[in-house]
């Protein structure tokens, strides 16, 4: 069994990089966390507090101390057809308060949170196309970090399998081998089939571990973890697109025959008006769309609920310090409970996404009716 795993592990290492790039491309057109440029003291806004936490950003906030916020600046990479390529660090924007090289982070309007061109007065230029934004944002950096972890794990495991293919598992190998076997024996084989599942194992393993590890890292609020990678619709869209490609490029003649000439359907539903064909073609795209929304919604909901409990402390604290102190214990307890629940959800969502993708692939390559 162990030599059988080795080939899947080697190919998984290659696909990890490709699938991460697909999510990174989706993040190029980013809707980053907006900055509030108004320095006046305001009441606590739970909506902004929560969505600033789950949104992407051009810098990585590490901690706050006595009203001062300490963040790690990230590279801003912009391209304009008129002025070419621009590269600078995000601290040039001074947390969104300043303009630099004719750009700023918009704080209002339809382009809120995006980098826009500005005039000499610092006002956003109207009717101007947004610059091509390929910046290394918080989620992109977190994705690179997770890919490094995955590669380190699988390269280590692969090397040990090559040296001792039948030896006793050690270290990472002893922890991850049961997970790899679980994906093979409980997901890939039953869904795709005993004979055809092997060539899809690298992709299936990549999906499972990429989603699961990013879900887990998003629950640890310490740099360089804590980013909401799998709760970003662009990342889940990239994952769904790879599943769409894997399913439809693997489809055999029977798969496409069932789409364009569904068997067992009355002829008047297929010809001359191709009603059933239209439904089947729409189904090709709705399946990955559902995968995208399910993962995005479940991971984002967990973050929103947790931050909602913490927001209660500040909401009640504005009315009275005693109210804030009294509710803090309850909020923290519920927040810890939801966090532990999210650890379970992180694994379940990786399993569900991988299982459904495997089922779709199995239906596309099956020789049975």
What does this structure look like?
There is one protein chain. By secondary structure, the protein is mainly alpha-helical. The chain has 2 domains: 2-27 and 139-365, no CATH class; 59-136, no CATH class. It contains 9 helices and 7 strands. The chain has helices at 2-26, 46-54, 138-163, 172-192, 201-217, 233-250, 253-260, 275-319, 321-365, and strands spanning 59-65, 68-73, 75-80, 84-89, 103-105, 115-117, 132-133. Helix 4 crosses helix 5 (201-217) and helix 5 packs antiparallel against helix 9 (321-365). The longest helix is centred in the C-terminal third of the chain and has 45 residues, at 275-319. The two termini are 31 Å apart.
Topology:
Layout: H1 2-26, H2 46-54, E1 59-65, E2 68-73, E3 75-80, E4 84-89, E5 103-105, E6 115-117, E7 132-133, H3 138-163, H4 172-192, H5 201-217, H6 233-250, H7 253-260, H8 275-319, H9 321-365
Antiparallel strand pairs: 1-2, 3-4, 3-7, 5-6
Helix pairs in contact: 1-3, 1-5, 1-6, 2-8, 3-5, 4-5, 4-9, 5-9, 6-8, 6-9, 8-9
Question: What would the keywords be for this entry?
Answer:
3-stranded antiparallel beta sheet; 369 residues; 7 strands; mainly alpha; 58% helix; two-stranded antiparallel ribbon; 9 helices
What's a concise summary of this model?
The chain is mainly α and 369 residues long. It has helices at 2-26, 46-54, 138-163, 172-192, 201-217, 233-250, 253-260, 275-319, 321-365; strands at residues 59-65, 68-73, 75-80, 84-89, 103-105, 115-117, 132-133.
How does the major sheet shape up?
3 strands, antiparallel
Unreliable stretches covering 5 or more consecutive residues: 22-40
Number of domains: 2
Radius of gyration, in Å, reads: 24 Å
Series of secondary-structure elements, N-terminal to C-terminal = HHEEEEEEEHHHHHHH
Helical amount:
55-70%
Roughly what fraction of the amino acids lie in strands? 5-15%
């Amino acid at each position: 069994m162990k030599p059988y795993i080795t080939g899947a592990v080697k190919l998984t290492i290659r696909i990890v990089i490709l699938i991460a790039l697909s999510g990174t491309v989706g993040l190029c057109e980013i809707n980053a966390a907006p900055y509030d440029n108004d320095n006046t003291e305001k009441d606590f806004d739970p909506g902004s507090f929560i969505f600033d936490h789950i949104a992407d950003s051009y810098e990585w906030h590490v901690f706050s101390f006595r009203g001062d916020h300490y963040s790690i600046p990230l590279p801003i990479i912009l391209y304009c057809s008129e002025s070419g390529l621009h590269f600078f660090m995000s601290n040039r924007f001074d947390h969104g308060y300043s303009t630099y090289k004719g750009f700023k982070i918009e704080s209002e309007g339809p382009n809120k949170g995006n980098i826009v061109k500005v005039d000499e007065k610092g006002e956003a230029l109207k009717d101007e196309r947004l610059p091509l934004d390929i910046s290394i944002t918080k989620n992109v950096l977190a994705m690179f970090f997770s890919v490094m972890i995955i590669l380190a794990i699988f390269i280590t495991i692969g090397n040990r399998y090559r040296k001792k293919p039948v030896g006793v598992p050690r270290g990472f190998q002893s922890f991850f081998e049961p997970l790899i076997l679980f994906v093979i024996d409980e997901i890939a084989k039953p869904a795709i089939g005993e004979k055809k599942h092997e060539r899809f194992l690298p992709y299936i393993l990549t999906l499972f571990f990429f989603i699961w590890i990013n879900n887990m890292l998003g629950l640890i609020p310490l740099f360089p973890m804590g980013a909401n990678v799998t709760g970003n619709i662009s990342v889940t869209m990239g994952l769904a697109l790879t599943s769409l490609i894997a399913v439809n490029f693997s489809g055999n003649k029977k798969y496409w025959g069932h789409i364009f000439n569904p068997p067992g359907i009355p002829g008047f539903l297929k010809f001359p008006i191709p009603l059933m064909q239209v439904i089947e073609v729409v189904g090709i795209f709705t399946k990955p769309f559902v995968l995208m929304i399910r993962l995005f919604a479940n991971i984002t909901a967990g973050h929103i609920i947790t931050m909602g409990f913490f927001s209660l402390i500040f909401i009640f604290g504005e009315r009275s310090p005693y109210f804030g102190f009294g509710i803090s214990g309850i909020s923290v307890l519920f927040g810890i409970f939801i966090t532990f629940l999210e650890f379970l959800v992180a694994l379940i969502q990786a399993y569900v996404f991988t299982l459904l993708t495997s089922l779709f692939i199995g239906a596309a390559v099956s020789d049975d009716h």
